[in-house]
Amino acid sequence: MSADTATGQGEIWAVAGGKGGTGKTFLVSCIATALAKKKNQVTMVDLDLGGANLHSFFGLSGPRPSLTTFFEFGSRLGELSFPTSVENLSLISGNVESMTSSTIKFSQKLKLYRQMTQLNTQYLIVDLGAGCHANTLDTFLAADRMIAVTVPEVTSVENMYVFVKNALFRKIKAALKGHGFKNLVSDTWKNRGALGLNNIKDLIDHLRSQNPPAGELLDEALAGFTVHLVVNQIRDHKDIGLGLAVKSILLKYLGLETHFAGAIEYDDAVWQSVREGRPFLLNHLTSPCAKQLEDLTENIIHSRDVR
Amino acid sequence: MTDHSLEKCYRILELAPGAGPAEVKNAYLRLKKLFTEESPVLRALSAEFPAEKRSSILAEIEDAYRIVMASLSLPIERHRPAPDTAPAAASGGSGTMLKLRRENRGVSLRDIHSVTKIRVEILENIESEKFEALPDESFLRNHLAQYARLVGLDPKETVEQYLDRYAEWRRRRTRLEELDRKK
């Protein structure tokens, strides 16, 4: 049954973070399951092209429709959605053998976004995979909920910060480009040495002071830029502080408001459930992660911080 | 720091405006610690942000805390009974003055230690002007500046005044040693 109509109003949640191995795919599978458990129609989209794993979390293997046919043969997105063993939950798989994120043309990207918003589903949970490529950033920026994941390690936090910064940079460039300020951001940034600008916050403040109309556009762009932070695989109670620390630093250094949406414990049961091919959230209800994941989902729904 | 609205101060402390004194103090200590210590998270960003930025953030947090606590008319501004040491002895920049100031603010040596990691013994020596036991001037400057910030004093002035007293003590001791040698 096709999940394709012209009137879909689904909310798009995009999960990214810059570094591989932080558990984005696991989180996508659980958040989607949590939403489906609440009787919502949910579709997962695996945009981790070239590294698609979402199907494994539901025990799905073997040939199945995937985004390959979308990009290579122009199939409609809705036709590629197939049900999982979880009620109300479908998957559009990303097993794109020959193409990677960087080889997708701009026009194909636009087509993908358009069809994503037209899908007949209430929630669209997108696994963006690792990396900071332009397509990844654009998909992240197009979402209704932008979710960034890290684990409590320096390199992961560093990558998540770089990811958020790049997404912000891309957003402000796009915001100004559309109004006749096409190269203002790039040119100013190139000149940062001479202008004494160390970072994005300095850049934004400078643009705002030099060019008030640009400043208004910038403020509008910033106001709509809310990232939901998730710290995954915590092993120690004090790792929770890491989420608060990242939130504080993004606020103080970049002037960015974010939500610390939740911290999820490390649990061996996770890889066990993948090995068994059974959805974690339905089969490990006694794991502390299960409650944490459901709370996380609620926090993202309500755009609020962990309590 | 220029005029800050109370609302902005709560935002700097990342609190909702209704937050009570315990929450305010906890938020302050957490943020102070985060931006004072070398946390892995900060290390990840240190390439992008110069040291002055961190100092100005710390100053902002410090000011916001004082303003919020003042508005709640609570511990940090409430007078505790001062020790019997005569206030007259508390001249500018002296250890006694620092201690009085700290106690008036309801800040314990433990509090200062938990934020700055300076040993309590050293803080006690600073307050009692046990100059012979104090660390090198370069460390001392840093300790004094951090102490000053935490009790709402101007760091530069405090350091200068305290070090003047330290220098005076050293001069007196040198003269005494010379006199001893001549005997």
Give a short summary of the structure.
Chain A has 307 residues and is of the alpha/beta class.
What does this structure look like?
The complex is a heterodimer of chains A (307) and B (183). With 307 residues, chain A is of the alpha/beta class. Helix content of chain A is 46%, strand content 14%. Chain A is built from 13 helices and 8 strands. An 8-stranded mixed beta sheet of chain A has the order 3-4-2-5-1-6-7-8, sandwiched between helices. Chain A is globular. Chain B is mostly helical and 183 residues long. Helix content of chain B is 64%, strand content 0%. The radius of gyration of chain B is 19 Å and the shape is elongated. Chain B starts with 5 loop residues before the first helix and ends with a helix.
Largest sheet of chain A: 8 strands, mixed
On the 0 to 100 scale, the average pLDDT of chain B is: 80
**Helix/strand order of chain A, N-terminal first:** EHEHEEHEHEHHHHHEHEHHH
Cα Rg of chain A:
20 Å
DSSP summary: helix tally of chain A: 13
Low-confidence stretches of chain A: 1-6
- Protein chains sharing the most extensive interface: A-B, 18 and 17 residues
Outline type of chain B:
elongated
Into which percent range does the helicity of residues of chain A fall? Answer: 40-55%
Low-confidence stretches of chain B: 77-90
Oligomer: heterodimer
Distance between the termini of chain B: 56 Å
Strand order of the largest sheet of chain A: 3-4-2-5-1-6-7-8
**Which percent range describes the beta-strand content of chain A?**
5-15%
